[in-house]
Amino acid sequence: MSDYRFLKACWGEPVDRTPVWLMRQAGRYLPQYMAVRSKVSFLELCKTPELAAEVTIQPIDYLGADAAILFSDILTPVEPMGLKLDFAPGPVFESPVRTQADIDALRIPVMEEDVPYVLETIRILRREFEGRVPLIGFGGAPFTLACYMVEGKGSKDFAQIKRMMYSAPESYASLMEKITEMDRQYLNAQIAAGAQAIQIFDTWGGIVSPGDYEKYILPYTTKLIEGLNRTGVPIIHFVKGAGTMLDLVKRAGSDVVGLDWHIGLGKARNLLGTEVAVQGNLDPTILYAPPEHIEREVKRILDENDGRPGHIFNLGHGILPTVPPEHAKFMVECVQRLSAKG
Amino acid sequence: MSDYRFLKACWGEPVDRTPVWLMRQAGRYLPQYMAVRSKVSFLELCKTPELAAEVTIQPIDYLGADAAILFSDILTPVEPMGLKLDFAPGPVFESPVRTQADIDALRIPVMEEDVPYVLETIRILRREFEGRVPLIGFGGAPFTLACYMVEGKGSKDFAQIKRMMYSAPESYASLMEKITEMDRQYLNAQIAAGAQAIQIFDTWGGIVSPGDYEKYILPYTTKLIEGLNRTGVPIIHFVKGAGTMLDLVKRAGSDVVGLDWHIGLGKARNLLGTEVAVQGNLDPTILYAPPEHIEREVKRILDENDGRPGHIFNLGHGILPTVPPEHAKFMVECVQRLSAKG
């Protein structure tokens, strides 16, 4: 299908060396990103294809990463569902979803009309990257989107979504069904526009107990993944804080399971079995360390993988804004050098 | 030694029913706490034995919990090390610890002189609770205290402590040694004053990878626990976010391992073996749910324990300030009713 080592690794095929990219590799730690960002708001940046493409390309040029990921925000397709979005600086919805009437009022966007900039960015990037690196599209998992929509903003205790989940389970289910269908159409539109892999981010999927994950979250993520036009397009599923329930995450059916740094990669692979690939899992704060420490940690993770096919190197969460960019670049070089077949 | 079912369960002895208490059971969700708190600052409350004792007693009277925990703050003994502490509203140190000179300047407090109010609160409470409930003393684990001391406040990325850990490992080690010795003296002073069990809170112990936990955190917690005058006084060790590395947490040597809600209690007990007791692990947000849902979740956790001795029921983290107090009371009743031997 493809000679890109990133895609081969997603399929569990042998590669010449371990592919590597970084979650949030287009972002604030890069001065070249800040230069673009200083001229426009975050939302304008997401909605202007030329600029979104420009910042997507930056880390490929600078880091030499083996895959690019579309620059966007997981809440981009939620706004046209009928929720006005602001960043202050975190995402804020003016009128959060709290009642069945609020849920009924949500519409499923028409992707080519409502988020054309996302699809146009993908088209620009595919032309730009042809023969160079594959392009990953992405979206939030239904639960993580629901958290933002119901809480209205980031939360420490997630009281609102939990109240809905436990006290109004039918409303919760109808909201999750609607988001799942939106997400399915959104990610399929990205695939149609040219995304060569899809990463589903479940940033908040790990806030619940394993039992509640199985009951309230897994069915929707599973349905979403089943509904994607996946032929030739691997699906990466990353649930932050899920090291204690990787068996459940695996059941969602993705091709690749993203790992945070709270579980050893070797242990995680033993639990998951080799029929699923993994992506991860360097602690993002290791990039504060001196180069020799970074190299040691990269080596440890490669050693834990122990030559098994189906490993994409990444951080265990997004790169932090205060990390020195040259440390990120050095980390990428370490992966490429240390994993190269002799 | 003692007829208190809480202490028996800590030792893994059979009990008539599962003992239960709640982390942060003296706190903002209780109107009677807010009434006291409205008259004094948080620090004044911690430093006034009569008031600290009053709020410690409140949840025993209201909830009927099987153990009381001293009302205090984990940073109380850090201030007399030489760091001015404020709450705004989270804890803030004016001059965080960043250099070897900062570390060298820290002193080990003389507990009876520097934190007499903590020890006096314990003495008041022991008289008050005699024959009723046992009293748990507590402190922060060395790493969690170090995080606050180095970051100066709560943090999302823990950049400062990580920089010290990785770039100045000798400074990091000397800081941790000093905190561990302070902690040892502080907790032994609590035991001498009458604390009948000690809980060590490692709120931030789960932010690192298992490898880094083993290298940078575990040695100090182990040394602390080894240095306590534990005869007859069980040690509870709670590391938030440690479900993927309970084998390491167990090696620190406590009598009881505290569990957050991210791992099933049955799975955790299988991993830990029955020679160590466990405490936990209801998701604190379940207390937002209607009573029938709370009861179902309590039953599930008791079922997961499956009659094994050495289980103390608790939340998986502190009770949230916006929870209805009657839900907390109902949860306690459920544990007491559902676990009673027929």
UniProtKB/TrEMBL annotation, chains A, B:
Q: What catalytic activity does the UniProt entry give for this protein?
A: uroporphyrinogen III + 4 H(+) = coproporphyrinogen III + 4 CO2
Enzyme Commission number(s) from the entry: 4.1.1.37
Q: Pinpoint the Uroporphyrinogen decarboxylase (URO-D) domain residues.
A: 19-28, 136-152
The cellular component terms of Gene Ontology attached to this UniProt record, alphabetical and capped at eight, are:
cytosol
Q: What keywords are assigned to this protein?
A: Cytoplasm, Decarboxylase, Lyase, Porphyrin biosynthesis
Q: Where is this site: Transition state stabilizer?
A: 73
- Residues engaged in binding substrate: 24-28, 73, 148, 203, 317
PROSITE patterns in the record: UROD_1, UROD_2
User: GO molecular function of the protein, one example?
Assistant: uroporphyrinogen decarboxylase activity
InterPro entries noted in UniProt: UROD/MetE-like_sf, Uroporphyrinogen_deCO2ase_HemE, Uroporphyrinogen_deCOase
Its pathway is:
Porphyrin-containing compound metabolism; protoporphyrin-IX biosynthesis; coproporphyrinogen-III from 5-aminolevulinate: step 4/4
One GO biological process this protein is involved in is: protoporphyrinogen IX biosynthetic process from glutamate
Q: What class of enzyme is it?
A: lyase
Q: Which Pfam families match?
A: URO-D (PF01208)
**Database matches in CDD domains:** URO-D
**Where does the record place it?**
Cytoplasm, Cytosol
Function, as annotated, reads: Catalyzes the decarboxylation of four acetate groups of uroporphyrinogen-III to yield coproporphyrinogen-III.
Q: Assembly and interactions?
A: Homodimer.
HAMAP family this protein is in?
URO_D
* Recorded family membership: Belongs to the uroporphyrinogen decarboxylase family.
What is the protein's given name? Uroporphyrinogen decarboxylase
Could you tell me which species this protein originates from? Geoalkalibacter ferrihydriticus DSM 17813
